[in-house]
Amino acid sequence: METIQALPLLGINEQNIDKYAVRLSRVLPGYNPTTVFFNSNGETRDELNNHMFGYRWPGDRRTHRIHGEIVLQFLQIDKFSSSYVFAGAYHVGSVIEKGSGFTIYDWHGQEISDYHAFIGRLVVNYPRKPGYTGMDFRLNKVENAKSFMESMTVESVEASPLTARPFPGYANVRINHAELVSAVNNSQWRTALDNVQGVYLQTDTSNGWHYVGSAYSQQGEHIGILSRWEEYAGGDHTGGNKLLQAIPNASFHIEQYFEYSILEIFDMHAKSQDIINREHWWMKTLSSLHRETDLHPHGYNN
């Protein structure tokens, strides 16, 4: 399939490219800007914009300069991924102090409305070259202009702004609780999760404990993984599991520390007992069964 270059889609060409800069905000330890982007309200969006327009962070002696009149903001969709979602085009404002050694480019009122329709809808691919590890690229440099014009390509332009990262395939699902909430409200994820039965995993990243669960249909019901994950997204997030309910301040703890992944999938015609057998196999394999006789229990299955 012939690729489509992303910058010309945004109206950028050889005659005007030197006015632009690109900032690629990456997933950082403890902070995923794309997760915030998909789950932002007024307060968290301000926090995200402050992150996207950082000039100097506390404890960082370097400055992160944006060279150009207009900056194109892209957010890395997943760690180690070369896919980015477009987060807007802005005039480059003045540098202002935010306190505690944190300074930013003032982004208030700087968004350029001509590009607004692409925010959250344009997903691009840009493979980073070895060497430079920064986030800022000045497009008035010939080599940068050539690289972005040729190598930043369109992955998709969605009909409406994304509410979750694109579904990565069942084998590549690993999401935190905020991403789970986005996923069960996103049409692409809902379709994928509703059309398979399966065995899934919850991991408590604060202590390494696991919970293995399953989703299967019986007595004519249609029960896919979506049905179970909707239970974890809402309510107290425990799905009725007593060991999860016993966690101090369980809802908050789960929101902060739990990750969700898929171990095995089955089509909707698979027998429930086959799925249950695989669920028990995974419980034993991952030692997720909680036995009081264990010297160091480390599972939430009972």
Descriptive overview:
The protein is of the alpha+beta class. The chain has 2 domains: 6-157, no CATH class; 170-285, GIY-YIG endonuclease (3-Layer(aba) Sandwich). Helices cover 27% and strands 24% of the residues. The strands form 3 sheets. The protein has a 6-stranded mixed β-sheet. The chain has a 4-stranded antiparallel β-sheet with strand order 10-13-11-12. β3 and β4 (83-91) form a beta hairpin. The protein is elongated and about 65 Å long.
Keyword list:
10 helices, 4-stranded antiparallel beta sheet, 2 domains, 6-stranded mixed beta sheet, 302 residues, GIY-YIG endonuclease, 13 strands, single chain, alpha+beta
The coarse overall form would be elongated
As a whole number of angstroms, the C-alpha radius of gyration is 22 Å
Can you list the strand order of the major beta sheet? 8-1-3-4-7-9
Strand-residue fraction? 15-25%
For the secondary structure, the number of strands is 13
Q: Can you tell me the residue ranges where pLDDT is under 50 for at least 5 consecutive residues? A: none
The total count of helices amounts to: 10
Largest sheet data = 6 strands, mixed
Name the average pLDDT: 92
Helicity, as a percent range: 25-40%
Q: How many separate domains?
A: 2
Main structural class: alpha+beta
Helix/strand order, N-terminal first? HEHHEEEEEEEHEEHHEEHHHEH
Distance between the termini: 50 Å
